[in-house]
Design a protein that fits this description.
The complex is a heterodimer of chains A (about 300) and B (about 210). By secondary structure, chain A is an alpha+beta fold. Chain A contains 9 helices and 12 strands. Chain A is globular. Classes of the chains: A alpha+beta (about 300), B mainly alpha (about 210). Chains A and B meet through helix 1 and helix 3 of A and helix 3 and helix 5 of B. Chain B: Its cofactor is FMN; heme b.
Chain lengths: ~300, ~210
């Protein structure tokens, strides 16, 4: 089942570590010449060039560690990720508490360079490593009456300042319809830029669903449940008017408080131009999953 | 000699003009950091700068609202600094608005749409509009021209402006972080302190006596 989806970017698109560390300095240098940055900033940035490791790992939403974008980078180190146990339950043939090694054993790790679009109208391009969720689901054996997959993030109050201040309800939960979960694009990431996932990026195991807003791609997963009814999803619970269960990237359906028609690529500096947001974040191959649905109502 | 008198005596020698330099300097310093991705600005400086200017504006509005209650309740008199505080608040709101329009939203069409369509932007924009006549009349000539009574009445627009600013902040965040509510709490507290408590007591207490008799 692995390799069902092919990158439109090649491994050559992944900036070597030495280069992506330097690129940042280069940008900082040119930014000093304001006018050049203004003229060239965003255009110079290739649409599919991955963001730097620094950009990807210092600008995060992971409310368990605080609501600030740099809070996860500053606070996530305290999270204990070894040992890591993932509970698989519900309508599966092989339920149980799996160690990370047991869970991922035999699954093919591949690289996927995906666009990542946050509901807050910013975006990145991220070189993930991981496996297809479909492969994992095949391994645990999905039963016939399962219709959805539910996920849950770890809660470690002693290591998570955001959990202690209860800024939202924890544990963070998310869910996918089974056909979305089985789609070749849907992956479970274990690595980033060829190294194990940094903690602020959702170590050691996270979901990546590139055609949906980033908050659907739940981090640091400790529980996967196959269920018959649509599961709860954290932001959908907090404000169903603003965050739908599907939350597919859709430039035509605004967030009630801001437009989703455009986005800003992270890393363009102070004068980065906005770019148009693409339907399904540019992953048109998922459109058939939603045939017959009114995506302005079921957003 | 009371503590307040001592403080007021000391403050008499402190001029207000350095506040303008501090305020302008800090604004430039923040911009320079954002330009170079330093400090808190990291990889996505636009939103951070927008938020930073907005938050400082709100803090300055609250500081301006503190001057009168502070004098009423403690005797400490900061009135000569209030114009600088108020004008700086306006210029930080203006900078916040410019970052929002020029750097963040980027086109006039989209700015108009945002102001009309997004209630939290509308609310913030109304607060900004309310501050414009105040900034324009924050000079001695205008006070003489308008007359102190009408001038003071006009400058009560800071009350709705501060309320709108705090509401704007609460409305734009995701989830329930504490800070926006602290700012709103401060604004409401400072406005409540301004109520005429003697009058309120006079209205409340006689009515209670009537029901007792």
């Amino acid at each position: 089942m692995a390799h069902r989806w092919k990158n439109d970017m090649t491994p050559a698109d992944v900036t070597p570590k030495s280069l992506f560390l330097n690129r940042r300095q280069l940008i900082a240098g040119t930014a000093g010449l304001g006018a050049i940055a203004m003229a060239g900033g965003a255009q110079a940035q290739d649409a599919m060039t991955p963001n730097t490791l620094e950009e990807i790992t210092t600008y995060n939403n992971f409310y368990e560690f605080g609501t600030g974008k740099s809070d996860p980078a500053n606070n996530a180190e305290a999270m204990v990720i070894d040992p890591w146990t993932v509970t698989v339950d519900g309508l599966v043939d092989n339920p149980g508490d799996y160690s990370l090694a047991d869970l991922t054993e035999g699954l093919t790790i591949e690289e996927r360079i995906y666009r990542f679009r946050c509901v807050e109208a910013w975006s990145m391009v991220v070189p993930w490593q991981g496996f297809e969720l479909a492969d994992l689901l095949a391994k645990v054996g999905v039963q016939g009456d399962a219709k959805y997959v539910a996920f849950e993030t770890v809660v470690q109050p002693e290591n998570m300042p955001g959990v202690r201040s209860r800024v939202i309800d924890f544990p963070y939960v998310e869910g996918l319809r089974l056909d979305e979960a089985m789609h070749p694009l849907t992956m479970m990431a274990t690595g980033l830029y060829g190294a194990p996932l940094p903690k602020q990026s959702g170590a050691p195991l996270r979901l990546v669903v590139p055609w949906k807003y980033g908050f659907k791609s739940i981090k640091s997963i400790v529980k996967i449940s196959l269920v018959a009814e649509q599961p709860e999803a954290t932001w959908n619970n907090i404000n169903p008017r603003e965050y739908g269960f599907y939350s597919n990237v859709n430039p035509g359906v605004d967030h009630p408080r801001w437009s989703q028609a455009t986005e800003r690529r992270i890393g363009g500096g102070l004068f980065a131009s906005r770019q148009d947001t693409l339907m399904f974040n540019g992953y048109d191959e998922v459109a058939s999953l939603y045939d017959g649905m009114d995506l302005s109502k079921e957003f | 000699m009371s503590a307040a008198t001592t403080i007021n005596g000391g403050l008499r020698r402190v001029p207000a003009w350095p506040l303008y330099i501090l305020g302008a300097g800090y604004m430039v310093w923040e911009f320079w950091q954002a330009l170079n991705g330093l400090g808190p600005y990291g990889v996505e400086p636009i939103n951070v700068l927008e938020r930073e200017y907005g938050e400082i504006a709100l803090i300055l509005l609250i500081a301006g609202l503190t001057v009168t209650p502070l004098r009423t309740w403690t005797g400490v008199n900061l009135i000569k600094f209030r114009r600088a505080i108020g004008l700086l608040a306006f210029f930080y709101v203006l900078a916040h608005f410019l970052v929002f329009t020029v750097l963040d939203v980027q086109t006039i069409g989209r700015v108009v749409t945002e102001v009309i369509k997004r209630p939290y932007v509308t609310v913030g924009f109304l607060g900004f509009l309310a501050l414009i006549p105040l900034a324009v009349t924050s000079n001695n000539w205008s006070i003489r021209r308008i007359g102190p009574v009408r001038w003071r009445r006009l400058h009560k627009l800071t009350y709705p402006a501060a309320l709108l600013g705090a509401l704007h902040y609460i409305w734009l965040v995701k989830g329930w972080p504490l800070e926006p509510f602290l700012y709103m709490g401060a604004v409401i507290a400072l406005l409540v302190l301004r109520l005429n408590w003697t009058k309120i007591r006079a209205i409340l207490i006689p009515s209670r006596q009537q029901t007792n008799s």
